[in-house]
Amino acid sequence: MRLSRTLAPTLKETPAEAQIVSHRLMLRAGLVRQTAAGIYAWLPLGFRVLKNIEQIVREEQDAIGAQEMLMPTIQAAELWRQSGRYDAYGPEMLRIKDRHDREMLYGPTNEEMITDLFRQSVKSYRELPQMLYHIQWKFRDEVRPRFGVMRGREFLMKDAYSFDLDYAGAVISYRRMMLAYMRTFQRMGVKAIPMEAESGPIGGNLSHEFIILAPTGESQVWYDAAFERMDVSPAAVSHHSPADLERFFTEMTTHYAATDEKHDPALWEKVQEKREGRGIEVGHIFYFGTKYSSPLGLTVAGSDGTPVAPHMGSYGVGVSRLVGALIEAFHDDAGIKWPDAVAPFRAAILNLKVGDAACDRISEEIYAKFAGDALYDDREERAGVKFADADLMGHPWQIVVGPRGAASGRVELKRRATGERQEVDLDAALAQIG
Ligand code: ATP
Ligand code: MG
Predict the structure, then answer these.
(1) If you ran DSSP here, which 8-state letter would residue 132 be given?
(2) Same-domain pairing of 329 and 359
(3) 140: Cβ below 6 Å to ligand 1?
(4) How many CA atoms lie within 13 A of 63 on its CB side?
(5) How far is 328 from 216, CA to CA, in rounded Å?
(6) In 317, 368, 399, 431, which residue has its Cα 20 to 30 A from 169's Cα atom?
(7) Residue 341: inside a domain, yes or no?
(8) Are 341 and 30 contacting, i.e. CB atoms less than 8 angstroms apart?
(9) Taking 80 as the threshold, does the pLDDT of residue 199 lie above it?
(10) What is the number of other CB atoms lying within 10 angstroms of the CB of residue 298?
(11) Cβ-contact 242, 249 below 8 angstroms
(12) Of the residues 283, 311, 336, which one is the last residue of a structural domain?
């Protein structure tokens, strides 16, 4: 994209309403704008990051055999009455009436709907197990929407649902999903700690929150350094092998990990390699048995013909929250330092002298080579403004084209993450960026 014709309204001043660094930087870098309390419009750069995160989440869900679908945002109240959650959910649920006075709601989550869809079409144990997911906007009328997209009212979530014939099957689905989560966050360049969470009425240890480490995170976390070394690659753990999954799960759940409420100083004492940090919850997975299949009448015929209520689990990732969480993990005083995997553009091309024949020619040549994956700063602005905006927006690479170098085919290459700069030939620069 050419920056001169891109809606990327950067701000020099720190917006007064933003309390945390990711919110400030998202506004300053022109990624989002608030349109109502806790509701945001995603401007082109922010939208590209959101899509990149979504794509990583999607690929890792697909890799473990989850099927992508799309359920609507608006739901009928009726199903929620059947599960008993229509009243239980409280004021966080946005309730709507249509023109015929029918009660509807903007979905805060989709357990009821997926259970109903499954009920209509799946009849036999032979069709299980299955996992389904969608990436869809949710609405929760949070009491205090804050921290920008980290706690919004409308937010993008990946929610997956598993259906198994029995508890043993559900445990395997749960472990598979945990593996997919570890891979997902690792690809985004962050360390995720699976933290045992309240598991509700069903009990067991099948509920985990995933906390990613970021110095400005809202909760304190204590964990064993073993998490930092865990190899979750397909070569190390196959999602097809129950034995692999069990070994992986044991490894994940026997090491110490706690947040403020769960911290146990006596147990912590025994941890060999203690690590402390701050963290942000970006995902939550849990097994809930037949909590929805029973009241909604979902049964399948078991192998002897008797009806069986499938055991279910649900698995959420805060896709839009991750945009903020990753900025919390990767930034400095000058702005965002996007990890390569999610950056809006791989590189920014800074033409320091628009109108200079050599600068224009080289900049255009580089821009063409990136086939859309570069942001070309072709504005008639001072060099200082271009440097500041590129640092603020956080592209992993900056290619600086100035009149002196351009005449001899040289550019300055800057790596945003390290600040390292080199003056190199154009071809060498492109080869390094890869
Ligand atoms: P929280 O404790 O932060 O309110 P939750 O327990 O309500 O989260 P879940 O229902 O498990 O969250 O939703 C799954 C994921 O969706 C969370 O891990 C989080 O990343 C994200 N999420 C939940 N609420 C919001 C929100 N208001 N804004 C942005 N993301 C959210
Ligand atoms: Mg909540």
Answers:
(1) E
(2) no
(3) yes
(4) 20
(5) 6
(6) 317
(7) no
(8) no
(9) no
(10) 23
(11) no
(12) 336
Q: Is residue 121 part of a domain?
A: yes
Query: Taking 80 as the threshold, does the pLDDT of residue 104 lie above it?
Result: yes
Strands 103-106 and 154-164: unpaired
Pick from 156, 199, 281, 288 the residue to mutate for probing ligand 1's pocket: most ligand atoms within 8 Å of its CB.
281
Mutate to test the pocket of ligand 1, among 157, 158, 320 (most ligand atoms within 8 A of CB): 157
Q: Mark whether 282 and 429 lie in a shared domain.
A: no
Mean pLDDT computed over 160-172: 97
pLDDT 10s digits, 310-339: 999 999 999 999 999 999 999 999 999 999
Distance of CA 331 from the midpoint of ligand 1 (Å): 23
Read off the pLDDT of each residue in 123-141 and give the average, rounded to a whole number: 98
Taking residues 359-377, what's their average pLDDT? 96
144: tokens are 């205090």
**Whether pLDDT at 202 is above 60:** no
- What lies within 8 Å, CB to CB, of 381 at 6+ separation is none
Q: Pull the structure tokens for residue 400.
A: 């600086």
Confidence of residue 215 (pLDDT cuts 50, 70, 90): confident
Beta bridge partner(s), residue 432: none
Rounded distance from Cα 71 to ligand 1 centre (Å):
18
For residue 373, what are the contacts with CB-CB under 8 A and spacing of at least 6? 345, 346, 347
Total domains in the chain come to 2
Instruction: Average the pLDDT over 175-184 and give the result.
Output: 98
- The Cα–Cα gap between 287 and 199 comes to 8
Say which ligand is closest to the CA of 181.
1
Residue of 70, 146, 65, 73 whose CA lies nearest to 104: 73
Distance between start and end Cα atoms, the chain: 19
Neighbours of 88 (CB within 10 A): 9
Q: Which domain holds residue 239?
A: 3-336
Residue-wise pLDDT for 107-117, tens only, equals 999 999 999 99
How many other CB atoms sit within 10 Å of the CB of residue 367?
Answer: 20
Pick the atom of ligand 1 nearest to 159's CA: 14
Residue 125 · residue 302 · CB < 8 Å: yes
The pLDDT score that the predictor gives to residue 216 is 83
| Nearest alpha carbon, ligand 1 atom 15 | 318
